[in-house]
């Protein structure tokens, strides 16, 4: 019969006084080995026999040893903590991406701190200063959370930063960025409504933050021979309430234009508000007015009717953002050197050179057809 590696049951370790943090010295004393042996076992380094390794781990468990993460972090000049800075948690889009980023970082043994700036740049600056004093390893900053001038200041000081979901499809001031192709998102919304046969189309947009969504939408209509008159554009602030108010404006009896047969809201939250107003007016969605949003927040699939929308791949955004940030942290920024200049052809046909830019990753959106859009009744 094969003998156990332990010929005898190890002796019970002497009790450690209450409140005392168990150290490798305590384990070494109980196991009858050198401190260096305990250190090698716990770190997985060095050559240690299997019997000795089991003996050390037994006493570590019995004594209730917990690794001193602070000491480890200080020795590596890292805290394994990432800050995620957001403009709001009132919009369901942000909790969804928070969960995705936290899950990915947790799998890499990082913890995540969440900071809500409430869209207040001064508060964002204050929070950043506090986080800097806590030795946070890096920052993922969501769009409209902070003043870009403040972000630039910290980035140029060597702070690892990645911008995520900013509205402009370019990397401002050379900071690594992951964002959605919002221009394409606007195109997809217009293409869907045009394919259904809509010609009287209105838009609810949060300007100027969501300008690219509007431009992609407007350009696609123009290419189909349709103009988007100013009277069919209503402004919102990405909230449900503003979507309701904007839809009231678009459907006002004082409008000189005929009622639209379709409304594109540049985020789902405003689309939900618009849908509520349409239903309050005794109209039907989509029989009287089709509504399409943008984001694909969880609640959109559970409305009556479920909302057709342009989906933002949140998990993909989270993966790309964390990858860019951890590359900065783990390579000391070497993985984020600006890309070399590239020649491109300008509008006049002359070769031009783009300025050096940091990594920019555009995530493609996609159409999710549900039951809030249909062909117009008059078609």
Automatic annotation (TrEMBL):
Residues 22-76 form the HTH lacI-type domain. CDD domains: HTH_LacI, PBP1_LacI_sugar_binding-like. It comes from the Bacteria. Signal peptide: none annotated. It holds the Pfam family LacI. Transmembrane segments: none annotated. InterPro entries: HTH_LacI, LacI/GalR-like_sensor, Lambda_DNA-bd_dom_sf, Peripla_BP_I. Residues 345-358 have a biased composition (Basic and acidic residues). The keyword Transcription regulation applies. The keyword Cytoplasm does not apply. Residues 330-363 are annotated as: Disordered. One of its GO terms (molecular function) is DNA-binding transcription factor activity. Keywords: DNA-binding, Transcription, Transcription regulation. This is LacI family transcriptional regulator.
């Amino acid at each position: 019969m094969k003998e156990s590696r332990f010929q005898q049951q190890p002796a019970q370790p002497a009790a450690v006084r209450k409140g005392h943090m168990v150290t490798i010295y305590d384990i070494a004393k109980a196991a009858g080995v050198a401190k260096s042996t305990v250190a090698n076992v716990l770190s997985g380094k060095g050559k240690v026999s299997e019997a000795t390794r089991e003996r050390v781990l037994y006493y570590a468990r019995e004594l209730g040893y917990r690794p001193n993460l602070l000491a480890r972090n200080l020795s590596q000049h890292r805290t394994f903590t990432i800050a995620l800075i957001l403009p709001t948690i009132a919009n369901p889009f942000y909790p969804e991406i928070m969960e995705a980023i936290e899950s990915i970082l947790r799998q890499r043994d990082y913890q995540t701190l969440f900071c809500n700036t409430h869209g207040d740049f001064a508060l964002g600056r204050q929070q950043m200063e506090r986080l800097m004093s806590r030795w946070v390893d890096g920052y993922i900053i969501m769009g409209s959370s902070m003043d870009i001038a403040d972000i630039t200041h910290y980035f140029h000081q060597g702070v690892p930063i990645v911008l995520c979901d900013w509205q402009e499809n370019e990397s401002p001031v050379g900071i690594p960025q992951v964002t959605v192709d919002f221009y394409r998102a606007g195109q997809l919304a217009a293409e869907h409504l045009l394919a259904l046969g809509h010609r009287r189309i209105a838009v609810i947009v949060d300007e100027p933050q969501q300008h690219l969504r509007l431009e992609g939408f407007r350009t696609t209509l123009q290419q189909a021979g349709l103009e988007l008159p100013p009277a069919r554009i209503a402004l919102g602030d990405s909230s449900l309430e503003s979507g309701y108010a904007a839809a009231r404006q678009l459907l006002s009896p004082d409008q000189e234009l005929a009622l639209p047969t379709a409304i594109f809201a540049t985020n789902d939250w405003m689309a939900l508000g618009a849908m509520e107003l349409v239903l309050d007016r005794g109209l039907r969605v989509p029989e009287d007015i089709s509504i399409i949003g943008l984001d694909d927040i969880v609640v959109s699939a559970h409305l009556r009717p479920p909302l057709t929308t342009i989906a933002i791949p949140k998990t993909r955004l989270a993966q790309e953002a964390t990858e860019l940030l951890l590359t900065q942290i783990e390579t000391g920024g070497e993985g984020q050197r600006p890309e070399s200049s590239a020649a491109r052809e300008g509008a006049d046909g002359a070769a031009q050179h783009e300025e050096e830019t940091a990594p920019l990753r555009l995530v493609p959106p996609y159409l999710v057809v549900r039951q809030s859009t249909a062909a117009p009744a008059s078609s």
